[in-house]
Amino acid sequence: MKVVILAGGLGTRISEESHLRPKPMIEVGGYPILWHIMKLYSAQGFNDFIICCGYRGYMIKEYFANYYLYRSDITFDFSDDNKMVVHSNVAEPWKVTLADTGERTQTGGRIKHIRAYVEDQKFMMTYGDGVADINLKALIEQHSKSGMTATLTAIQPSARYGVLDLDEDKNYVIGFREKAKEDANWINGGFMVLEPDVFNYIDGDMTFFEREPLNKLSDDGKLGVYRHYGYWQCMDTARDRSALESLWREGKAPWKVWE
User: Fold this and answer.
1) Is 143 helix (H, G, I), strand (E, B) or coil?
2) pTM over cut 0.70
3) Residue 254 falls within a domain, yes or no?
4) What pLDDT shows up at residue 95?
5) Total tally of structural domains belonging to the chain
6) Which residues have C-beta within 8 Å of that of residue 188, sequence separation ≥ 6?
7) What is the CATH number for 242?
8) CA 106 vs CA 58, 113, 209, 239, 250: distances in Å
9) How big is the chain by its Cα radius of gyration, in Å?
10) Would you tell me how many other CB atoms lie within 10 Å of the CB of residue 175?
11) Which residues contact 102 (CB under 8 A, 6 or more apart)?
């Protein structure tokens, strides 16, 4: 199954870093947060990625163009016709498609741009700034049994995010509300499974996926929810990045589900 990662936003709330590079390329433990996300998918058997690029997308392309060099021990012998010898390398089992989806395109528009790459198949989607110790196969299994067009992962952080109203007996979303500080309820944590019919809910480039499409899916009874009770963290601010960095440095990163 293909994995779509939204990696084109401006990252204005972490502007001290994002004015130099795309938010998904901000590093935690010496690796871009995008790499961490891909590793957690890959550790569970999902290796076919479509990355939706936008703001400074060329930096993401350059990273993957040089990934083999970054991860290998190499001797450059300039005395022998510029010979390059690779002594050892760490190859990932990844196929990575980097799609230009526009610098100012909104989340829904970015998803619509990559329709041709998912080939009318069910696919996964997440944001390029959040990590978790989520069981992806359990998420997919629940989605497949539900008959929903979309299933999102719900988590319970602080109340500074948009709030989901959930049916407590059945796994579907009743409503989708904007941020409410007095609420400390379930919110959209990304890590979604989407059927190709989801494209019919997206109008164009300026569509926020978290607004009209998710609300319409909810109204139609087609938006499922997978409750994740484990670790989840979005790198939204410099403080968030510092917290992630500390966990990684101390060897206590809960999202590191790979060896």
Assistant:
1) helix
2) yes
3) no
4) 97
5) 1
6) 152, 153, 154, 161, 162, 164, 176, 210, 214
7) 3.90.550.10
8) 18, 11, 8, 25, 36
9) 19
10) 11
11) 8, 54, 109, 110, 113, 205
Structure tokens at 21: 């590079």
Q: Which two tokens stand for residue 99?
A: 């799609």
Per-residue pLDDT of the chain (259 residues; tens, 9 = 90+): 999 999 998 766 676 666 788 999 999 999 999 999 999 999 999 999 999 999 999 999 999 998 888 888 889 889 878 888 888 777 799 999 999 999 999 999 999 999 999 999 999 999 999 999 999 999 999 999 999 999 999 998 765 556 777 887 778 888 877 655 445 588 999 999 999 999 999 999 999 999 999 999 999 999 999 999 999 999 989 999 999 999 999 999 999 999 8
Residue 207 tokens read as: 């569509």
Residues 6+ apart with CB under 8 A from 88: 72, 73
**CA–CA separation, 50 vs 2, rounded Å?**
7
Range of the domain at 235: 2-249
Beta bridge partners of 234: 130
Name the one residue in this structure whose structure tokens are 């989340």.
107
The answer to whether 164 and 176 have CB atoms below 8 angstroms apart is yes
Structure tokens at 219: 């109204």
**Residue 112 φ/ψ, nearest 5 degrees:** -65, -35
Lookup: tokens for 212: 């009209």
On whether residue 256 sits in a domain, the answer given is no
